[in-house]
């Protein structure tokens, strides 16, 4: 008896969920046709548009099947089959799947990246720009030595582009905004800029600093702020400055003597 009760209860719950889902889909259909009035003889185009709208709303493929059932009861007949209905909705749904892929903005780029991907980021970000930080200069040097690297000509704030068969289009950053900040040893610097012949050296401000050799433990000291908390505060200040300057564009002009 208890088994039958659980089975019946499960069936009732499933039917309740189906009813709620169907009610939501019917409301979606009603709203859609308020903004896109039904036109006689234009069922296929309407189903394409309905399928695209459903995908943009984030409907699952299971909900697509429920939508097909709801619309079948409304418009199938008079020479218009359920197969044609399903084809129209699926085509619209899949079209958005293939074409509606938003590009996300990443303010901080990875030092280990290909030249092609770096140009992609610069194009997508536009005037927002891109920042690449690396505590070890070898991280960017290693990427530049790869076949997919050779970033040298990207570090000069002039239009850059790539045209690879795999992309099937030219990717061009017309006005790249790229900021780079690296630290490393003198040997790492020589690996990063092995020669003055390619102009890379002139594109950076190089600061050398001597320090007294002394062992400094990274272990948190009781009663003092640890490094993670300290740098999180600094990053918060940098973010505040970025947001302020984004809303209030600032241009710094240097005098001849400067």
What does this protein structure show overall?
The protein is mainly α and 258 residues long. The protein folds into two domains: 2-99, no CATH class; 108-208, no CATH class. The protein has helices spanning 2-35, 43-56, 61-75, 82-99, 115-125, 138-144, 186-192, 227-247; strands at residues 108-109, 130-134, 160-164, 169-173, 178-182.
What is the H/E order? HHHHEHEHEEEHH
Query: What's the main sheet like?
Result: 3 strands, parallel
Strand order of the largest sheet: 1-2-5
Number of domains as seen in the coordinates: 2
Summarize the amount of helix as a percent range. Answer: 40-55%
Uncertain parts: 1-22
SSE arrangement:
Layout: H1 2-35, H2 43-56, H3 61-75, H4 82-99, E1 108-109, H5 115-125, E2 130-134, H6 138-144, E3 160-164, E4 169-173, E5 178-182, H7 186-192, H8 227-247
Parallel strand pairs: 1-2, 2-5
Antiparallel strand pairs: 3-4
Helix pairs in contact: 1-3, 2-4, 3-4
